[in-house]
Write a structure and sequence with these properties.
Length: 138
C-alpha cells in the first residue's frame, strides 16, 4: 500500500528556459538572428550612409530584446505593454466647473463651500472642519 518513506522528486527551476543554442535560449537566438538578418537586408538594400543609423537602431533593439531586463522582466514585456497602451482607445473626460460656466455667461458664479458655515468665527469654522476631516479619515 502506501509507504511512509516514499519520497517524490518535485521539479525545481521550472521558470528557467532551456539553453538550446550555446548560452542562448531559443527566444534569445531568434532575437539575435532576426536582428542580424534585418541588418544584413538593410545593408544590401539601402545606401551605406542611410543604412548605418537604421542598422544601429535595429541592432540596439535586438540586443535589448535579447539581454536587457527591467525589474527582472525581459524587455519584450515592456515593449508589449507600451504598444498595448499606445494602440488602445483612450477616454479623456473634462468636466467644466460651475464657476467657469458662470464666468463665461457673464453671471455671478455660485460659491459652494465644502464646509458649511456654523458661525462667523474663523477659528471655530477651522476647528469644526478639522474635526469633520479627522472623522472621515478613520
Amino acid at each position: 500500500m502506501y509507504n511512509e518513506c516514499m519520497q517524490f522528486q518535485v521539479p525545481q527551476f521550472i521558470d528557467i528556459e532551456d539553453k538550446i543554442f550555446g548560452p542562448f535560449t531559443f527566444k534569445q537566438f531568434i532575437y539575435l538572428v532576426g536582428g542580424a538578418g534585418l541588418c544584413f537586408i538593410l545593408y544590401k538594400l539601402l545606401p551605406f550612409l542611410i543604412a548605418v543609423p537604421i542598422m544601429l537602431a535595429v541592432a540596439a533593439f535586438s540586443l535589448a530584446l535579447t539581454f536587457y531586463k527591467i525589474n527582472n522582466k525581459p524587455f519584450i514585456f515592456i515593449v508589449q505593454a507600451w504598444l498595448g497602451y499606445a494602440l488602445q482607445n483612450k477616454l479623456y473626460i473634462w468636466k467644466r466647473g460651475k464657476k467657469k460656466k458662470a464666468e463665461a455667461k457673464g453671471e455671478e458664479p455660485e460659491t459652494e463651500s465644502l464646509v458649511p458655515r456654523l458661525s462667523d468665527s474663523k477659528l471655530k469654522d477651522l476647528a469644526w472642519s478639522l474635526d469633520v476631516l479627522d472623522v472621515n479619515k478613520k
